[in-house]
Amino acid sequence: MQNFVTFSRNVFIPLTRACRNNCAYCGFKREINDKCVLLDKQSVVRLLRRGAASSCTEALFTFGEQPEEVDGFSDRLKKIGFDSFVDYLLECSRIAIKLGLLPHTNAGVLPDTDLLKLKSVNASMGLMLETVANLQAHNDSPGKNPEERIRFIETSGRYQIPFTTGILVGIGEDENDRINSLKVIADIHRRYGHIQEVIIQNFSPKPNTRMSDAPIPSTGVMLRTVSLARDILPPDVAVQVAPNLIHPKILIEHGACDLGGISPVTIDYINPEAAWPNARELADAIGVPLRERLPIYPEYIKAGWYSKEIKPLIDRLADKDGFRKVAFV
Question: Any binding-site annotation on 36?
Answer without folding.
Answer: no
